[in-house]
Amino acid sequence: xxxxxxxxxxxxxxxxxxxxxxxxxxxxxxxxxxxxxxxxxxxxxxxxxxxxxxxxxxxxxxxxxxxxxxxxxxxxxxxxxxxxxxxxxxxxxxxxxxxxxxxxxxxxxxxxxxxxxxxxxxxxxxxxxxxxxxxxxxxxxxxxxxxxxxxxxxxxxxxxxxxxxxxxxxxxxxxxxxxxxxxxxxxxxxxxxxxxxxxxxxxxxxxxxxxxxxxxxxxxxxxxxxxxxxxxxxxxxxxxxxxxxxxxxxxxxxxxxxxxxxxxxxxxxxxxxxxxxxxxxxxxxxxxxxxxxxxxxxxxxxxxxxxxxxxxxxxxxxxxxxxxxxxxxxxxxxxxxxxxxxxxxxxxxxxxxxxxxxxxxxxxxxxxxxxxxxxxxxxxxxxxxxxxxxxxxxxxxxxxxxxxxxxxxxxxxxxxxxxxxxxxxxxxxxxxxxxxxxxxxxxxxxxxxxxxxxxxxxxxx
Amino acid sequence: xxxxxxxxxxxxxxxxxxxxxxxxxxxxxxxxxxxxxxxxxxxxxxxxxxxxxxxxxxxxxxxxxxxxxxxxxxxxxxxxxxxxxxxxxxxxxxxxxxxxxxxxxxxxxxxxxxxxxxxxxxxxxxxxxxxxxxxxxxxxxxxxxxxxxxxxxxxxxxxxxxxxxxxxxxxxxxxxxxxxxxxxxxxxxxxxxxxxxxxxxxxxxxxxxxxxxxxxxxxxxxxxxxxxxxxxxxxxxxxxxxxxxxxxxxxxxxxxxxxxxxxxxxxxxxxxxxxxxxxxxxxxxxxxxxxxxxxxxxxxxxxxxxxxxxxxxxxxxxxxxxxxxxxxxxxxxxxxxxxxxxxxxxxxxxxxxxxxxxxxxxxxxxxxxxxxxxxxxxxxxxxxxxxxxxxxxxxxxxxxxxxxxxxxxxxxxxxxxxxxxxxxxxxxxxxxxxxxxxxxxxxxxxxxxxxxxxxxxxxxxxxxxxxxxxxxxxxxxxxxxxxxxxxxxxxxxxxxxxxxxxxxxxxxxxxxxxxxxxxxxxxxxxxxxxxxxxxxxxxxxxxxxxxxxxxxxxxxxxxxxxx
Lengths: 461, 563
What we know:
The structure holds 2 protein chains of 2 kinds.
Chain A: H1 2-6, H2 20-33, H3 35-40, H4 42-45, H5 49-60, H6 69-78, H7 95-100, H8 113-128, H9 133-150, H10 159-180, E1 190-194, E2 210-213, H11 214-240, H12 243-248, H13 255-284, H14 291-319, H15 330-355, H16 363-381, H17 397-419, H18 421-424, H19 438-445, H20 450-453
Antiparallel strand pairs in A: 1-2
Helix pairs in contact in A: 2-5, 8-9, 8-11, 8-17, 9-11, 9-19, 10-11, 13-14, 15-16, 17-19
Chain B: E1 2-10, E2 19-22, E3 25-26, E4 31-35, H1 42-50, H2 52-55, E5 60-67, E6 70-71, E7 84-87, H3 100-111, H4 115-128, H5 144-156, E8 162-166, H6 174-191, E9 194-198, H7 202-205, E10 211-214, E11 223-225, H8 227-233, H9 239-246, H10 256-262, H11 264-274, H12 279-282, H13 296-309, E12 317-326, E13 329-339, E14 344-348, H14 355-362, E15 370-375, H15 385-388, E16 392-395, H16 408-419, H17 425-433, H18 448-460, E17 466-470, H19 478-493, E18 497-501, H20 505-511, E19 514-519, E20 522-528, H21 529-535, H22 542-547, H23 555-562
Parallel strand pairs in B: 4-9, 4-10, 7-8, 8-9, 14-18, 14-19, 16-17, 17-18
Antiparallel strand pairs in B: 1-2, 1-3, 1-5, 5-6, 10-11, 12-13, 12-15, 19-20
Helix pairs in contact in B: 3-4, 3-5, 5-6, 16-17, 16-18, 17-18
Keywords (chain B): ATP-binding, Cell membrane, Membrane, Nucleotide-binding, Repeat, Translocase, Transport
Membrane topology (chain B): Peripheral membrane protein
Main location (chain B): membrane
């Protein structure tokens, strides 16, 4: 058994079952046959000799069933976003174009989820710098276009619609407040005057009803639009980045927290399914299944079911080796604790120093030292964890481009905000029509880059 | 490979040990089957191998369990993870990640294997289990058989030397079950993996076993032997063994093939008994009717008697060209079905064929996209729940969903109230279906079979003329199944129409007058049980396969014919 598991020349995909002897012979024969081939491309494969032979064996094999192993492997070794060698591709023609054409997304060339988040947060930062409705609309359009172009069929990708609805609700609430609670903006264009609710003298400063001015409404609209745009940017990141993979990129010491979040993420859908099933069961008992009461009554059984499922999952995870830890010398353990605690204390003290008037001199250094110590603690803590990572997302050129486009949008907007603040914050008193400043608009359009460089998601089969 | 040394397990708060005197050894590379009635502690024995009992479940384990030389007393489950792979009853509660490929890698990540080793093993396992096409799929979108294969794959990647499986095929349709068993067979033969497996559906697995461990009753010491030895004395046995015991074949046949070789004499004998009513012409007559015929002549008399009442009974339920859509998926298309009073219909077909949806449509949980459903003249999804339960009752796949109260008595009182029945109606039904159950028992403490009976009683309190059951035999042993069959036959005789969705071909053969086979949301076969079932290789019960071309369905029929 053991000899089989780790024998050097194991077959890769397409080989079916490789028993120890079988795998050994095939690897032996393969290395004979493929010595020349292996010599020709050692730099590219860059592996220990045994696995080079194994890889070469696979390479010589005709493409197996269900995704031939060769392109997968070469992609993995060749870089994060190397071209998939399409079997029928014509070798001649425009090589540069062929090399730079956006590939179809696979596990190997998937964009790092962090890149999507940086891009989206960049757009969000840009949105926070302006109240110009035209620029905000442009930002929403850019985010929406990229989502439409690069969204997958995965469940989390559907959250974009929910975020758009939430953004609309926020805008509506902001306008509702402006209508019913009045607005501090002095305005002259009265649209309508609502009856004002008389309030006692101690509630002065609060107004319910009263005059509604066009200026107040427009201000609320701009303000609400800014919030809505921020939400839509976050929604775009949510829809484009796989949350589970994002959590997989956490440092080893935080791995356990990451797993908890992943488990919670997969639990939520089954909880909803439970609620639906139990409401149906209420109907089978002849009780009304609609309304709040119906929902409340299934609460306890749903919680019970969720608890049972978590216990079963915990048992399964335990049996699969979750929480195995390496033996760490006590000195390292103590150092970890000191570094982490001290680092966090330093961060607190440094922040306090930065915020108070007297602490200007020591604030920043203490903060930085604390941060460094905390990161060191995290890194040392990671040594306790035995875990390895299966096919982590690599940060390749396309990830740089996507993240860079978001950063560029944010940076250019910040520059524009200090250079020409009036264009980014159109006045409401007096009421003027907002104009589209060309420079910032062009900067925002940079955010469209991911729609062209990110790998194209697969068509749903 | 696995050694139990005089092991007994007592859970906290239990007076008696759940298992006692367990003392056997599983040699390397064998497939050992753990059998026994419900509640004898099969899961406890399995849990002791992976160390989950007692490290995770609590309780006291006396004696010693060693796996590959490691004592589970000193090794926690996580420290056994590299030698033991465990797959529980419900694959869904086993998954930690969301996609197939990540799930396969998860165990290896925990063990800290090198990335290139992980990659290689994932590719191997994808091919070994035929999952390569599903590698990027979210696990939630897979079918039951696929999920079960992913669960097995996910514990295989760390290359454990022992695989422990608790009812791996119970929830699967016959084809998916064979898929899973073929994989296990391959692991044992090609990789030398030691497999210890518990399963109720012996007809599916017994022929693969090298040895069988029988736990005859709670607290009794287990019995170890070759399958045919153990089957000769086991209280649980598949129909093919039942037939062998009936015909006194020795050694007992375990497979249909073995039995067929020996069955020549039996077939001739049966052909003589069947006499002038030639089996083939008779096929539509054979379906087991509520009162079991003792001979064919009595059967035909009974049929003649039944004919006058049969002509035009008001149909209990009528479905006409029903279509149901779920998003873009057409779950059902052009389905026509009628159910007459006193008729038992089995809905069969692979997982996801639309069986549960059809039951849902009959009970008003699912709104038709086209066509009509009428149950006792009412349209189910437009009828108020209080009204509807008097016309149709459904026992869902998980009977526990129907039970809310803390005690059996409270549950019954609530059922009486819901149904507007006289107080005590439900309790009387419970006593009838489930004699000797205490009033203050918590429904959760009941066994699967008892819980099903309680849910059935709750549903029957409203006396619905149409009774629906979704997978009623999941997790039931043969004895509980036989009791269920008796109860349902009685109900059919009283004039209830019964529709049950099931994967269990033996149950369908035992109970149903008609079998309806669904595939991809369409009805592909609808006819008397004997006709439909005999014609289909995957839905034929074992007795039919052994005695073909004569259309016998169950051991009981054969016994009655011979006596």
